[in-house]
Amino acid sequence: MDAKKPKTAIDRLHTYCLKRFAALIRKHGGPECGKDDPLHSRVGKYVRLLQQHHNLTPLSERIVKSSISVFEEMNPIRNNQSFAHDNETLVTMDEARFIFDSITAFLRFSKSIDGRLFED
């Protein structure tokens, strides 16, 4: 995003999240992620593990649960409005920044509570 390439940043963030959530689930001892598991399914598995392993407040629990649908909506943006494919309509810089910041907020929270599992 800092390089002013939002279409590329959204694609790379999606790929990073796929790998990161698979690693977090594996490190928690959760069910293995299949190669074709969509991002929101991986986030859902991770959210269930968060609920089991951390004493989240009701508000934090609601936020992490609602993030599953946010990650689900990231798929069409990545597939249809980024450089992941040959798309004609691309996400704007302002909207890409908002999406990027929202997704990375969840990643920062995950790292803050699962820091030891977050590092490769």
SSE layout and pairing:
Blueprint: H1 6-27, H2 39-53, H3 58-81, H4 93-113, H5 115-118
Give an account of the 3D structure:
The chain is mostly helical and 120 residues long. The chain has one domain (6-112). It is 72% helix and 0% strand. It has five helices and no strands. It has helices at 6-27, 39-53, 58-81, 93-113, 115-118. Helix 2 runs antiparallel to helix 3.
Outline:
This protein has helices at residues 6-27, 39-53, 58-81, 93-113, 115-118.
DSSP helical segment count: 5
Bin the helical content: over 70%
The best one-word shape is: globular
Mean pLDDT: 85
Question: What proportion strand?
Answer: under 5%
CA-atom Rg in angstroms: 14 Å
Distance between the termini: 23 Å
Query: Which class of secondary structure composition applies to the elements?
Result: mainly alpha
Largest beta-sheet details = none
* Number of self-contained structural domains: 1
Order of helices and strands: HHHHH
Poorly predicted parts: none
The total of beta strands comes to 0
Oligomeric status of the shown chains?
A: single chain
